[in-house]
Every structure is written in C-alpha cells, then in structure tokens.
Amino acid sequence: TLFLPPGPGPFPGIIDIFGFGGGLLEYRASLLAGHGFATLALAYYNFEDLAKEIDSIHLEYFEEALCYMLQHSKVKGPGIGLLGFSLGADICLSMASYLKNISATVSINGSGFSGNRPIRYKQTCIPPLNHDFRRLKVAFSGLLDIVDIRNDVIGRHENPSMIPIEKAQGPILFIVGQDDHNWRSELYAQIASERLQAHGKDKPQILSYPGTGHNIEPPYFPLCPASVHKLLNKPIMWGGEPRA
C-alpha cells in the first residue's frame, strides 16, 4: 500500500518493512505520509496471493518495489529511504548492501545477520545463523525467553552469516532497545559498527534506549510485552517497560 502526503509532490520516498510475523501493516507508513514522506508499506509473505510461509528471502522481490518507487511520479529521486523492524530491518540492510539507489537505511531492532532463513540475490546467498533450542529459558511468568538461542557469538563481524553492510551507499541508523528479548539488538548494532569501521567506513549512528524491548512502536502505541512467535508457535517475551 502506497501512502502519499497531500499536495502535488514529489515527496521523498520510503519503503517500510515489518518483521517475521508477515502480513501487511500500514499504520507506520500512513503516519510517515502525514510527515511528508511517500511511503510504501510492503508485505512479503502471509498476505493475499503471497506465500503463506517464508523459506528464504529473495531480494529481487524487494528490488521490484524499489523500482516501482523510483519511477513513481510523486516520488522524488534519485534515492529511496528504507525503514525496517526486526526481520524487516535485516531485509532493509540487505537491500542497502546489494541494490542501487538507496539513500538511507533505518534499522529498528534488526540483527544485521541472516537469521533463520537464507537471504538470496542473484547468485549470492547469505547462509542463516540458525539457532539451538536447548538455550531456551522459561521466565517466571511461564513465557519463553529466546534471547540466547541464536548461534551468533562466533566470528563477530566476520561471521559468514552477516549481511555485507559495508557495501551500502547511504548512511545507516540503528535504533535498539537495551531490553530486547528477541535477540541482542544492542550487541548486534555494535558488531555492525565494528564491521563498517573494519572496512574503512564511518561509525554509524546508534540510538540505544534503556528499558526498551523488541517492539519499538510510534509514540502513544500500546506496548506489546509478549505474544506468540511464529518460529516457535508459543508465547515469548519481547522485553521492555511501557514508559521506556
């Protein structure tokens, strides 16, 4: 769904991508259009004629959306901004790494890795980190805590499952919650910063919020502290305090 601000335009363009839950979420894109951005809310599975499940992420699909935005008469080029949350953030980081005409990328609690599914573009494939369910913990409430299940400690910024963000053209902003229980977003942002600097790039901007969990929503939205995770089909904790 494309949301356009009032007026003749053209407007700066954004592609807005959400996480592993799939479907089409429009509220953030509509709010951004109210602030002068032509914003495309982009579903990539579990919606209408798209696949119900996701076995791998093919960047050609997202490239098509990028081309659509670049040729739209109401969208001001020459580049498009990307805004992603969780898995959507990792898709945005992959797009910025492999596709042209991306002017800036915002990652909200992304990981910078190919997590549970391989990321593919043409002949390139980033293998998934995968996970070990033996590291699951059960909180006092009975909710599952999955923060430690990923195989992410080996190799740091040289891990083969890491997205090659040093190839990105525009700046990258990392927004992270220090109490994220989906994965260690703050650590991942630091590893991403290490990788960029190891390749001679500038240190990226990282906004790190204490007491804040995985779900960072627009202002005044209710906090979702726990819900059923599609990977496990069980209720897990996302972390975070309401005020934070």
UniProtKB/TrEMBL annotation:
One of its GO terms (molecular function) is fatty acyl-CoA hydrolase activity. Pfam families: BAAT_C. Residues 57-243 form the BAAT/Acyl-CoA thioester hydrolase C-terminal domain. GO terms for biological process: acyl-CoA metabolic process; fatty acid metabolic process. InterPro entries: AB_hydrolase_fold, BAAT_C. GO terms for cellular component: peroxisome. Transmembrane segments: none annotated. Gene3D superfamilies: alpha/beta hydrolase. This is Acyl-coenzyme A thioesterase 4. It comes from Neovison vison. The gene is ACOT4.
